[in-house]
Write a structure and sequence with these properties.
This protein is mainly α and 395 residues long. It folds into two domains: 187 residues, Growth Hormone, Chain: A; 170 residues, MFS general substrate transporter like domains (Growth Hormone, Chain: A, Up-down Bundle). Helices cover 81% and strands 0% of the residues.
C-alpha cells in the first residue's frame, strides 16, 4: 500500500520526535483524527434539533417527514462505496476537508430552503458528505493506529459520541435562547471550521492507491461487515424504539421516556473513551466476546423485567457491551489481507449504515407481527451470536 507507507512515515516521524524531545504538537495525526471524529459527530447531531422546525415549516405528517429524513440515509449509503476510491486518489486530508465542507454548507441551507423537494436534494448532499467523511476518517484512523502500534480506534469513536453531545447541546442551547435557526447553524459551522483549521496540518495526505470505485466485500470483510450491520442495528433499535418501549410497554411517562437512549448513549461514550486501554489489556477478541454477551444480557434485562428502572439499566448494559465492538471491527478491517483497506472500510461502513437504516423499520414490522419485546429480544440473540462467533474470528 503506497499510501499507507507514506502516511506511516509521517506518523512515525511525529512519534519519534515527540518521544525524543517531549514536544507536544497541537495538530499531531492522532489529535487531528480525534478532532475530525468530533466534528463529524457535531455535524450529525446539530441537524437533530432542527428537524421539528422543518416538520412545522412544511406542515409534514410523520410519514412525509420519515420519507424526507430517508434522503439523508440514502445519500450516505450511495456515497460511501465511492469514498475509498476518492481517498485513494486524492488522499485522506482532501476528502475529509471537502466532504465536511459539503455537509456544513447544507446545514444552514436546510434552515432557509422554502421548497420540500429542494430540501430533499440538500439532505441527499448532506448525507453524502457525512457518508464520505465517515469512511475517510476511519481509513485515516486505521493508518494512524497502525503507525502508533497501539489501540486508538475506540478513543476516536468515543470523540464522535462526544461531538454528538456537543453538537446537539450547542444547537439546542442557541435555539432555546432565541437565536434564529440560520444563525444557530452558522455558529455551529463557524466553530467547526475553526477546529478543522486547527487540525488541518495534522491530517495525513495519503494517496496513490488506485483501484475500482467499489468492490463487493469478500473474505473476512464479509464477517466484519455483518457484525457492523448487527451493531448499527442494535444502536438504531435503542435510538428509534427505546423511548417507545419504555412508554408503551413499561408505562413510563412519554415526556421522560427518552432517558433510555440517554443512558445507553452515555454509557457507550464513557466506555469508548477508555476502550483503548481495555482492548490493550484483554485483547480485541475478548472485547467482542464479553461485550457481545453483556449487550445480549442487557437486551434480556430490558425485555425480561417489568421494572422501568431495570429496563433502563438494561439499556446501560447494552451501551457498555456494544461500545467497543465496532471500533475493534474497524481496526481488524485495517489489518486483514482479503481486501485493500481503502476498499474494505467503505464496504464495512456501508453494511453498518444499512443496518442502522433498515433495521428500525424491520423491528417495527416484527413488533407488529408479534411484540416490541420480541423484536428487541431477537437483537439480543444476534448480539450473543456475535459473541460466540468472535471465538473463531481473527481479530
Amino acid at each position: 500500500m503506497r499510501a499507507a507507507g507514506a502516511s506511516l512515515g509521517q506518523v512515525q516521524s511525529f512519534v519519534t520526535e515527540t518521544a525524543s524531545t517531549g514536544v507536544k504538537f497541537s495538530a499531531s495525526p492522532p489529535a487531528a483524527t480525534r478532532i475530525v471524529f468530533f466534528l463529524s459527530g457535531v455535524c450529525v447531531a446539530a441537524w437533530a434539533p432542527l428537524i421539528p422546525f422543518v416538520k412545522d415549516r412544511f406542515a409534514l405528517s410523520e410519514g412525509q417527514l420519515g420519507l424526507l429524513l430517508l434522503c439523508l440515509g440514502i445519500g450516505s449509503i450511495a456515497a460511501m462505496p465511492l469514498a475509498g476510491a476518492l481517498t485513494g486518489r486524492l488522499g485522506c486530508r482532501r476528502v475529509i476537508v471537502v466532504s465536511l465542507i459539503l455537509a456544513w454548507c447544507m446545514l444552514p441551507l436546510a434552515t432557509v430552503i422554502g421548497r420540500v423537494d429542494v430540501l430533499a436534494v440538500a439532505l441527499l448532499l448532506f448525507g453524502a458528505g457525512l457518508g464520505v467523511v465517515d469512511v475517510a476518517m476511519n481509513i485515516h484512523a486505521v493508518l494512524v493506529e497502525r503507525a502508533a502500534g497501539r489501540a486508538l480506534m475506540s478513543g476516536f469513536h468515543g470523540l464522535w459520541s462526544v461531538g454528538g453531545i456537543a453538537g446537539a447541546g450547542l444547537t439546542s442551547l442557541l435555539i432555546s435562547s432565541g437565536v434564529s435557526l440560520l444563525v444557530t447553524s452558522l455558529v455551529v459551522v463557524g466553530v467547526s471550521v475553526l477546529l478543522l483549521a486547527a487540525c488541518f496540518r495534522g491530517l495525513l495526505e495519503s494517496g496513490g492507491e488506485h483501484g475500482p470505485a467499489f468492490a463487493w466485500p469478500h473474505g473476512r470483510v464479509v464477517v466484519l461487515g455483518i457484525c457492523c450491520f448487527v451493531l448499527y442495528l442494535a444502536e438504531g433499535s435503542v435510538l428509534e424504539w427505546g423511548a417507545v418501549f419504555l412508554s408503551t410497554v413499561r408505562g413510563m411517562n412519554v415526556a421522560h421516556a427518552g432517558v433510555g437512549f440517554v443512558a445507553f448513549a452515555s454509557a457507550m461514550t464513557m466506555c469508548r473513551l477508555i476502550g483503548d486501554r481495555v482492548v490493550h489489556a484483554i485483547g480485541p477478541a475478548r472485547v467482542v466476546l464479553f461485550g457481545g454477551l453483556l449487550a445480549a444480557a442487557g437486551f434480556l434485562v430490558v425485555v425480561g423485567t417489568s421494572s422501568i428502572w431495570a429496563s433502563i439499566a438494561g439499556f446501560v448494559l447494552v451501551g457498555i457491551g456494544a461500545s467497543n465492538i465496532v471500533p475493534v471491527m474497524f481496526s481488524a478491517a485495517g489489518r486483514q489481507t482479503s481486501m485493500p483497506a481503502h476498499l474494505a472500510l467503505p464496504a464495512m461502513t456501508t453494511l453498518g449504515y444499512a443496518g442502522g437504516l433498515i433495521g428500525p423499520p424491520v423491528i417495527g414490522f416484527v413488533a407488529q407481527a408479534s411484540s416490541l419485546s420480541v423484536s428487541l429480544g431477537l437483537i439480543g440473540v444476534l448480539m450473543a451470536a456475535i459473541a460466540v462467533a468472535s471465538i473463531k474470528m481473527r481479530l
